[in-house]
Write a structure and sequence with these properties.
The chain is mainly alpha-helical. The protein contains 4 helices and no strands. It folds into 2 domains: 53 residues; 80 residues, PGBD-like superfamily/PGBD (Muramoyl-pentapeptide Carboxypeptidase, domain 1, Orthogonal Bundle). The mean pLDDT is 83. This is Peptidoglycan-binding protein. It comes from Aristaeella hokkaidonensis.
């Protein structure tokens, strides 16, 4: 029988690949099983369907507003500037850009309302700013 060297090399290559596949599978199968087990122990809770029995005790939580600071732009900044102006803290142009004037107005609001005056309109600042408890700025010029 004539032994072809290319055929022997091909068989050897397949044998090596088969051995690697078996070794890899030996390591991966337990890992996959562990991941599946972990996922089954910590399911992701889903909010109940409105009107269902589960919905009766479910309280939907508001998502906190993202902090606004220098460089922020858009409708949320425009709304912030309008509210600061209505309360007498902001006298600049309402342009939807959080610049130095907006930052100074936020700091003044925070100081007057007993918040940490950091110049960022974070969750606490925005919650108080848009509430009925917001203190007006009586030092309007």
């Amino acid at each position: 029988m004539n032994k072809n060297p290319k055929m022997i090399a091909g068989i050897a290559g397949l044998a090596v690949m088969l051995i690697l596949a078996v070794v890899l599978a030996t390591y991966m199968i337990p890992t996959i099983g562990e991941v599946r087990r972990e996922m089954s122990l910590t399911p992701t809770p889903l909010p109940p369907v409105p009107g269902s029995v589960r919905a009766a005790g479910y309280v939907e939580q508001d998502t906190p507003e993202p902090a606004l600071g220098t460089g922020s732009r858009g409708d949320k900044v425009t709304r912030l500037q309008e509210r600061l102006k209505a309360l007498g803290y902001y006298d600049g142009e309402i342009d939807g850009q959080f610049g130095q004037g907006t930052q100074e107005a936020v700091i003044a609001f925070q100081m007057k309302n007993g918040l940490d005056a950091d110049g960022y309109a974070g969750e606490k600042t925005q919650a108080l700013l848009y509430s009925d408890e917001a203190v007006r700025n009586d030092n309007e010029e």
